[in-house]
Design a protein that fits this description.
Shape: globular
Number of helices: 14
Helix content: 40-55%
Number of strands: 8
Strand content: 15-25%
Distance between the termini: 47 Å
Structural class: alpha/beta
Radius of gyration: 21 Å
Order of helices and strands: HHHHEEEHHEHHEHEEHHHEHH
Length: 318
């Protein structure tokens, strides 16, 4: 599996050329510093041209990238003493959603998030990050536990959507998502949701009813995938690129629409380039959010959450 995105090909080729030139200069004892410096300048300019002007479809590709950090990656870098909890106490455990108790800056919190796999075997185990109803019920169990013990809830969103299979529907997929939406709306503790990859449909929203909704710069949040939208609008999924541009599903677009509160900057080239540094960038926003929310009363938290979602959206008159 390639560890590069398709639009990065010119950068990869130039980096390889620079590496070859450095190796050749060292091997032959030749001073090629001027040539190398010229190429490195060209590389810096090319990086700025590509990463500084990403199109919506390119952001979709980054959000879906197999090496993009997952919930467990961020838990490792942001929290201490994470204790994962399993099961929904009704049917089974769902590995597509992970959750548990941890310490953040010395304070107890509940952390919940979608979890994709890192390779084929892991993806099959985690159902490619698409939860069954028991995953959402596990998440709700942990949220209610957090409410009981007055712990803030931090959710990481990263899913193509809830699993649409027969077994999931038989076990009440729609009801599980709807119940999460209702219960999160009235939860009496702070909720901070962060979209770290794909935020797909109700499967994402089931962890997204928060006091603050933040998005990584190259993540997406939408009611349907670009391919699905293209199939509906143009009867052809190959128009996904045009759909991505039309749907306004990227972090900058959603910030303008008032759907998300903060666009969290990503390291150059995407979060996968430096997970530790990316976690630090998330940490800054998360700390500020919790600092603000933990000073509010339960009634204030619920009221502000209600007002937030009531005001989301824009009325368009034709």
């Amino acid at each position: 599996m390639s560890n590069h995105l398709s639009f990065e090909k010119p950068l990869v080729e130039l980096r390889e050329k620079i590496a070859e030139l450095k190796s050749f200069a060292k091997e032959k004892g030749i001073d090629l510093s001027e040539e190398i410096q010229t190429l490195e300048g060209r590389l810096a300019q090319l990086e700025e041209d590509i990463y500084g002007n990403l199109h919506p479809w390119q952001r979709v590709q980054i959000a879906r990238f197999s090496e993009r950090p997952t919930t467990l990656d961020y838990i490792e870098h942001l929290f201490n003493d994470f204790l994962e909890m399993h099961g929904d106490r009704l049917f089974a455990d769902d590995p597509a959603i992970v959750g548990g108790i941890a310490l953040y800056k010395g304070n107890p919190v509940t952390v919940i998030g979608h979890q994709r796999g890192k390779d084929t075997k892991d993806n099959i185990y985690r159902n490619f990050g698409m939860p069954h109803p028991e995953g959402y019920r596990k998440a709700l169990r942990l949220m209610k536990q957090a409410e009981k013990f007055s712990r803030p809830v931090i959710c990481f969103i990263d899913t193509k959507g809830a699993y649409p299979g027969k077994a999931a529907e038989e076990r009440g997929q729609s009801e599980a998502i709807a119940r999460n939406l209702r219960e999160m709306a009235g939860l009496k503790v702070p909720i901070v949701s962060i979209v770290i990859g794909e935020g797909g449909s109700g499967g994402a929203l089931a962890l997204g009813v928060g006091n603050y909704i933040h998005m990584l710069e190259n993540s997406t949040y939408s009611v349907i995938s670009p391919e699905g939208a293209a199939a509906l609008l143009w009867k052809d999924a190959s128009y996904a690129k045009q759909a991505a541009e039309t749907m306004q599903i990227t972090a900058p677009d959603l910030k303008k629409l008032g759907v998300v509160d903060t666009v969290i900057e990503e390291v150059r080239g995407g979060a996968h380039k430096d997970v530790k540094k990316q976690a630090m960038l998330i940490d800054q926003v998360l700390e500020e959010s919790l600092h603000t929310l933990t000073r509010k009363s339960a009634s204030e938290l619920v009221k502000e959450r209600y007002e937030k979602y009531k005001e989301i959206g824009e009325i368009i008159t034709l």
